[in-house]
Amino acid sequence: MTNKMNKTLIITGGYIDENFLKEWFTKENYSMIIAADRGLMVADRLNLPLDFIVGDFDSVSKEILQKYEKLSTPIQTFPREKDKTDTQIAIELALMHNPSSIDIIGATGSRMDHILANLHLLLLPLQLNVDASIIDAHNKIYLKTKRFHIKKDTQFGQFLSLLPFHEKVTGLTMKGFKYPLDRVTLDFDSTLCISNEIVEEEAMVDLVEGILIVIEARD
Predict the structure, then answer these.
(1) Does domain 148-217 have CATH number 2.60.120.320?
(2) Checking CA distances to 32, which of 54, 60, 181, 197 falls within 20 to 30 Å?
């Protein structure tokens, strides 16, 4: 059973806008913070309080690791040649502590293979009914399998896009949007739901079957 207050932040090794992370951290109330490999360097520069550190640390100096060893921060070290990315290890660790939600910062950047892998890793919390999002300065990305609502005054960005995670999503309905839909099938090769906008105080998305990739984007 999840704790409603048990929000977890994972800082991993992709590109991170440090000003954005600092601002985001100050307005969120996280009960646990996990740094994964190179994400430790950013967390250290911002002086964020860390609960766990994981990774192979091929991009982290010994001095930084020694600093956190002296602070008795739990550190889990893995070999560079392994079957899981540092981000997956961090997500699995977070799920062991029954989080109410997980935010992942540093999961995007120049490595498209890592971006796609991280998107697929969102299935791990989804399967346990834990809300999880990949967040950067421009996007908030998450998966949905059932009806959800978004309030216009709290949305992450002006634009909302939907893509099917698998072959298709059926019975897709969108209300409160500039371009509403009523029980349509969204195929894998469709761009029908790119760059929609909320026009009412609260918008609703519903689906009958499938997994939606939801992207709230800033221009």
Answers:
(1) yes
(2) 60
Q: What is the pLDDT of residues 136-177, one digit of tens each?
A: 999 999 999 999 999 999 999 999 999 999 999 999 999 999
Establish how many alpha carbons lie within 13 A of residue 88's alpha carbon, considering only the half-sphere containing its beta carbon. 15
Residue 38: both structure tokens together:
């190179």
What is the rounded CA–CA span in Å between residue 215 and residue 213?
7
Residue pair 126/109 in contact by the 8 Å Cβ criterion: no
Strand runs labelled E in the chain: 7-11, 32-36, 52-55, 75-77, 101-105, 131-135, 139-144, 148-151, 159-164, 168-175, 181-187, 196-197, 202-206, 212-217
Q: How far apart are the two ends of the chain, measured CA to CA in Å?
A: 37
Q: If one looks up domain 7-137 in CATH, what number appears?
A: 3.40.50.10240
In this prediction the pTM is: 0.95
Signed CA dihedral, 28, 96, 60, 16: sign only: negative
Angle in degrees, CA 207, 101, 67, rounded to 5:
150
Domain ranges of the chain: 7-137, 148-217
Q: Quick one: which of 174, 179, 164 has its CA closest to 209?
A: 164
